[in-house]
Amino acid sequence: MQLKQQKGKLLLRTTLAEIIEEQRLQNSLALLPIELSAIYALGQLPAHHADPFDRLIIAQARWHYFTVVTNDRAYSHYDVGLLW
Fold first, then answer.
1. How far apart are CA 44 and CA 14, in angstroms?
2. Could you give the CA distance from residue 78 to residue 65 in angstroms, rounded to a whole number?
3. pLDDT of residue 84
4. Strand ranges for the chain from DSSP E
5. What is the Cα–Cα distance from 17 to 34, expressed in whole angstroms?
6. How far is CA 4 from the centre of its chain?
7. Looking at residue 27, what is its pLDDT?
8. Given this model, what pLDDT does residue 24 score?
9. Within a 10 A sphere around the Cβ of 47, how many other Cβ atoms?
10. pTM of the full predicted structure?
11. How far apart (Å, rounded) are the C-alpha atoms in residues 41 and 57?
């Protein structure tokens, strides 16, 4: 979100920090660190998606059996739960 905002592709109503904190509190979100297991798992992912940040999200989601909320169709090529 921060990168999209900096490129002018995302207009936020307030700061990203405020939005994240608000959502964290309202929805009981847990923020996870980037884990070494996810970094190592990147080497096992097929190259269906070129964006390194998205690939990291996919690797971490697979490791934790998380569902990813996205409308990016490239995610459907991976063994990860999707919502949207």
1. 38
2. 12
3. 86
4. 67-69, 81-83
5. 18
6. 13
7. 94
8. 94
9. 7
10. 0.73
11. 11
Q: What SS3 state is found at 54?
A: helix
Q: Which tokens in the block code for residue 5? A: 């905002």
**How far apart, in whole angstroms, are the C-alpha atoms of residue 83 and residue 3?**
23
Residue type, 52: P
Residue 82 amino acid letter:
L
Structure tokens at 47: 């190259």
Per-residue pLDDT of the chain (84 residues; tens, 9 = 90+): 898 899 999 999 999 999 999 999 999 988 889 999 899 999 989 989 889 999 999 999 999 999 999 999 999 999 999 998
The first and second tokens of residue 24, run together, are: 């964290």
Measured distance CA(37)–CA(59) in Å, rounded: 8
- Going from N- to C-terminal start, the domains of the chain cover 1-31, 33-84
From residue 29, how far is each of 17, 20, 23, 59, 60 by CA, in Å? 14, 9, 7, 19, 16
> What is the rounded CA–CA span in Å between residue 12 and residue 67?
25
